[in-house]
Design goal:
Blueprint (H helix, E strand, L loop, with lengths): L3 E3 L6 E6 L6 E6 L2 E7 L9 H11 L9 E5 L5 H9 L4 E6 L2 H10 L7 E6 L14 E6 L14 H9 L1 E13 L4 H13 L2 E7 L9 E8 L8 H7 L4 E5 L8
Parallel strand pairs: 5-6, 5-8, 6-7, 8-9
Antiparallel strand pairs: 1-2, 2-3, 3-4, 9-11, 10-11, 10-12
Helix pairs in contact: 1-2, 4-5
């Protein structure tokens, strides 16, 4: 029987199904829509395209295998915390999820890798920021957006300023933006980030930058200029066809 749990905040059901093609992998769906993919056998394998791009950014946050401090605003099935736990042992991570039932459901049926130090917060993504000191994290990941229906209090420059405050000076603020043509929401988030960060880059499938297709664009805000040496590793890591846009190359989204 497929594990199923009612989420009281939304009134939707969460379900966990086995991946029919990958042994040891599972798919979390909410309200019938697939939300997360987890490979318990090999947590370092990240299946969803946008999460793979975020993982590639995390790979550049510090030297390989070095522990980092990460904050995940929006936890889902904890795919990225699992990735960090196995690729950077000793990392201290905090995961924020509003739905207590979802958090409990995921941990029960999709346990974290042994030794993973992930501290859970049942809270609003913005409210939890005040619990942390300035410069606490190397990476902050925001993954709660659903286009124009996204929570308004998480979309403005004031929120991004609060998120940036808990970042180390060399940290990365990563924002996953799912959107539809003409990418109006993506453009608004890029403008909001650019008001508070020193530099912003964007990662996506090449086709996304035409503004003609639905999908995900990953925005990365920095408190310093974008390191030019990041471009080639990010392009090589894919998923392909990959594109990295910074500076004037982002004008098509402004």
């Amino acid at each position: 029987m497929v594990p199923r749990r009612l989420l009281r905040l939304t009134g939707q059901h969460a379900e966990i199904d086995e991946d029919a093609f990958i042994d040891g992998a599972y798919i979390l769906s909410i309200g019938g829509a697939q939300q997360s993919h987890v490979n318990l056998a090999q947590p370092q394998q990240v299946f969803y395209e946008y999460l793979r791009r975020i993982a590639n950014l995390v790979d550049l946050a510090a030297p390989a295998s070095e522990p980092i401090r990460a904050l995940h605003l929006g936890a889902g099935a904890l795919t990225l915390p699992r990735y960090i736990a196995v690729t950077r042992p000793g990392s201290v991570q905090h995961a924020v999820e509003r739905e207590r039932e979802l958090n409990d459901f995921v941990l029960k049926h999709l346990p974290l890798p042994e030794g993973a130090d992930v501290r859970h917060h049942i809270a609003d993504a913005r409210e939890v920021l005040e619990r942390f000191d300035t410069g606490t994290f190397d990476v902050v990941v925001l993954d709660v957006f659903a286009g124009p229906d996204s929570p308004a209090h998480l979309t403005g420059p004031d929120f991004y300023a609060e998120a940036a405050a808990v970042l180390d000076r060399n940290g990365i603020l990563v924002v996953n933006v799912g959107d539809d043509p003409p990418l109006s929401f993506t453009r608004s988030q890029l403008r909001a980030l650019e008001q508070v960060m020193d530099d912003v880059g964007a990662l996506a499938d090449k086709s996304m930058f035409t503004g003609r297709y639905p999908g995900n664009i990953v925005l990365a805000g920095l408190k310093r200029p974008w390191p030019a040496q990041w471009d080639m590793p990010l392009l090589a890591a894919g998923p392909h066809p990959a594109a990295v846009r910074t500076g004037t190359a982002l004008d098509s989204l402004r």
